[in-house]
Write a structure and sequence with these properties.
Layout lengths: L1 H29 L2 H8 L1 E7 L1 E2 L3 E4 L4 E3 L1 H14 L4 E7 L4 H6 L5 E2 L7 H4 L2 E17 L7 H6 L3 E5 L4 H8 L4 E5 L2 H9 L5 E5 H10 L3 E18 L3 H16 L2 H10 L7 H4 L3
Parallel strand pairs: 1-5, 1-6, 8-9, 8-10
Antiparallel strand pairs: 2-3, 3-4, 7-10, 7-11
The chain binds glutamic acid.
The site of glutamic acid (GLU) has 11 residues, from strand 10.
C-alpha cells in the first residue's frame, strides 16, 4: 500500500512538473515581442561590445558604440516613434543565441550571419550588412591568402560561436584553428604570436587594422557573410516591422549616412558591397 502511495505521489509530481514546464515554455514562445515593445516603447537589443566599428564598449563613458548600435537606435525610433528607447545588452558570438532564447534580449544585431543552420533556431530580418570572411595578418607575413595558410599549416585564430571557425576548417583543412572567447582576446593572441592569422568577417578585421596599423586584411573574402537581425521564431510581427523600418531607413538616406559615419576611415571600403541586400 505504502509503495502504491509513493508511486502515485511520484506520478502526480511528474504531472505537475510537466504542466509547469509546458506552461513556462508556452509563455515564452507565445510572448508577442513587438506588442510588449510597443507598450513599453523600448526594444532590448543584443549587441557586440568587443567589435570596433560594429559594437565596442567605450570605457570612458561605459557606452557601447558602433554601426550596429546606431542602426538599432534608428530602427527603434522608426518602429516605435521618436520618443522610443533602445536598450543595449552586451553579447558575444557564443552568448547571443542562448540570451535570445532565454528572453534576455528581443533581437540580436551583432555581426551575425544568416545561415541555414541558424535558421533552424531563429528567424532573420533582411540583410543589413553584407560582409565576407577574410584574414588579418601581420604586415609582411608569408600568409597572403587562405591557400597559403593551408599550405604552411599555420595556426589561425578565431572566436567560439562564430561560423568563421567552421568555415576556415573547411577551406583550409591543414591549418590549426585556435578558438578564443571574444575578438579582443583573439587580437591579443595574434599580437603575441599564438597564431599567424586571425579569421572573421572583413568588416570586423578592418576595425582591428584601423586600431593596429601593423596588421592588414589580406587575400580578399572566401565566404559570403550576410548579416541579419536575429529574433526568436514566430515573432513575425517584430520581423515584419523590422524589415519595413530597415527599408525606410535605406530609402531616406539614414542607412548610408551611418555606413559612412563608421567606415569612412577604412581604406578601400566597398560601400556598395556592404549595402547589398
Ligand atoms: N559573421 C560571423 C558569424 O556570425 C562571424 C562574426 C561573429 O563572430 O559574430 O559567426
Amino acid at each position: 500500500m505504502k509503495k502504491l502511495i509513493r508511486s502515485l505521489s511520484l506520478l502526480l509530481s511528474l504531472v505537475a512538473l510537466t504542466v509547469i514546464v509546458s506552461a513556462c515554455g508556452n509563455k515564452l514562445s507565445s510572448r508577442n515581442v513587438y506588442k510588449t515593445d510597443q507598450q513599453s516603447k523600448t526594444i532590448t537589443w543584443g549587441v557586440k561590445a568587443d567589435t570596433r566599428l560594429f559594437g565596442l564598449l567605450d570605457t570612458k563613458d561605459g557606452k557601447i558604440k558602433g554601426f550596429e548600435v546606431d542602426l538599432a537606435t534608428a530602427l527603434t525610433k522608426q518602429m516605435l516613434g521618436k520618443d522610443a528607447k533602445a536598450k543595449f545588452i552586451q553579447v558575444t558570438s557564443s552568448t547571443r543565441m542562448p540570451m535570445l532564447k532565454n528572453g534576455n534580449i528581443d533581437a540580436i544585431i551583432a555581426t551575425m550571419t544568416n545561415t541555414p543552420e541558424r535558421r533552424k533556431q531563429v528567424t532573420f530580418s533582411n540583410t543589413y550588412f553584407f560582409a565576407g570572411q577574410s584574414l588579418l595578418v601581420k604586415k609582411g607575413s608569408s600568409i597572403k591568402n587562405v591557400k597559403d595558410l593551408n599550405k604552411q599549416k599555420g595556426t589561425v585564430l578565431g572566436v567560439v560561436g562564430s561560423d568563421s571557425v567552421e568555415n576556415v576548417a573547411k577551406v583550409a583543412p591543414d591549418a590549426k584553428v585556435l578558438q578564443l572567447t571574444d575578438y579582443a582576446q583573439a587580437m591579443t593572441a595574434l599580437k603575441s604570436g599564438q597564431g599567424q592569422a586571425l579569421t572573421t568577417d572583413n568588416g570586423i578585421l578592418y576595425g582591428m587594422s584601423v586600431q593596429n596599423p601593423g596588421y592588414e586584411v589580406t587575400g580578399g573574402t572566401f565566404v559570403s557573410e550576410p548579416y541579419g537581425i536575429a529574433m526568436d521564431k514566430n515573432q513575425t510581427p517584430f520581423r515584419n516591422a523590422t524589415n519595413t523600418a530597415l527599408a525606410e531607413l535605406r530609402a531616406n538616406g539614414t542607412y548610408n549616412k551611418l555606413l559612412h559615419k563608421w567606415f569612412h576611415n577604412v581604406k578601400g571600403f566597398d560601400y556598395k558591397e556592404a549595402a547589398k541586400e
